[in-house]
Amino acid sequence: DAQDLNKIKNYLKDNQALQNAAYFGKEKGKNVIMFHLESFQQFLIDYKVDGVEVTPNLNKFYHDQNTLSFDNFYNQVGQGKTADAEMMLETGLFGTASGSAMVNYGTSNTYQAVPAILDQQGYTTAALHGDVASFWNRDNTYKSWGYDYFFSKPYFKNADNANYNIGYGMKDKIFLKDSAKYLEQLPQPFYSKIITVTNHYPYDLDKQNISIAKTKTSDKTVDGYVQTARYLDQSFAEFLNWMKKSGLYDNSVIALYGDHYGISENHKAAIAKLTGKKSTTNFDLANWQKVPFMVHAPGLKGGVNHTYGGEIDVMPTILHLLGKSTQDNIQFGQDLLSPNRRQIVPFRNGDWVSAEYMKYGGDYYVTTTGTKIKPKEDPRAKEIIDQTQSYVDKMLTYSDDVQTGDLLRFYKPKDFKKVNIKDYSYQRAKG
Ligand code: GP9
Ligand code: MN
Questions:
Q1: Residues acting as catalytic residues
Q2: Could you tell which of 168, 172, 348 is best to mutate to test the pocket of ligand 1, judged by most ligand atoms within 8 Å of the CB?
Q3: What is the maximum span of the chain, computed from C-alpha positions, in angstroms?
Q4: Which of 44, 287, 307, 428 is the most exposed place for a label (fewest CB within 10 A)?
Q5: Residue ranges of the Sulfatase N-terminal domain (predicted)?
Q6: Parallel, antiparallel, or unpaired: how do β-strands 252-258 and 31-37 relate?
Q7: How do residues 45-90 score in pLDDT, each as one tens digit?
Q8: What is the pTM of this model?
């Protein structure tokens, strides 16, 4: 109830990170493209198979002088996978300990999400994805989040053409080409999220789209991963070319994020082969959870940023770049550019990574060296580890309280108007 919310609000206030004056508001009024790299992991950046770059275009974007690239950024999803990533990025709330928060709470809960916040700052907001609108309960949840438009399968004429489909939906190159037509008609400034899907388990790809050899781990659901990742890379490159030709590249923030791991921890032997190691420890598996997060804008002071963070931190990072403070929002992230952020990354199962130590799969390590430690034998480390664990447990519990108790219905950020889901319809107009 409202008392619970007050306790949470005060805790978050006491743990708030400062804005970064050098970046705050630098991209105010710019369009935003959130580009969802399905199942794309950080290890693919600058990765080569037999000397061939898997993702040359993403690598170039990652190293661009106007791209902020985070190389200690982790996925924090639970069973909700893509849906948990979307929940964290749009609301600053974690997914739930089990199930998908979008499915279980997306329709009925009150949210104060990025699309609604930016809508109220004069933005038009749109989500684009080639799957059916009801997958992960997106159609209902997006209304709670305040998306003006949701271009889903019925909006894509090629959606049912077998030649253009593979795995979970339309091939990304086709989807992105058709998506461009919707983006160029959006009133500006717009906030858009584009969700790709071809790079998805089990990573099948038709022959004419294959442009790199499979890896040779002999794990058949792993060895195609580099092929669909390279296809995604080419799809992104084609989209970027269109952005440049249409002029949108010069007045837009383009943020890329991997939503979660592609190769799960059950493939330890294959992971060892892909990373050139004899075996895979829990230290390796923690780092295996890294996904890319990159933000590009013309003139943005770029570079590789080593801060330890994750998907929960994207909302304050993006909104602060757009000059929108989040100090009045109930959200669990800390701006990745903040000078005093805690650098603690909670995973959904209560494990965590921090700048000093990490806890993963029941083991503890020094983060920068991989040295395994036993907290019982190291009192100083134990003190820090215990404090970190209680912070992680509190953040996850409080976020679950907000979700399961729908606590945001008791709250309204200053200068925010409550979202009325009846104001939204995503049905494709006939004709
Ligand atoms: C489904 C697509 C894949 O529409 O987003 O979702 P995932 O299986 O990654 O959660
Ligand atoms: Mn996904």
A1: 82
A2: 168
A3: 71
A4: 428
A5: 30-323
A6: parallel
A7: 999 999 999 999 999 999 999 999 999 999 999 999 999 999 999 9
A8: 0.97
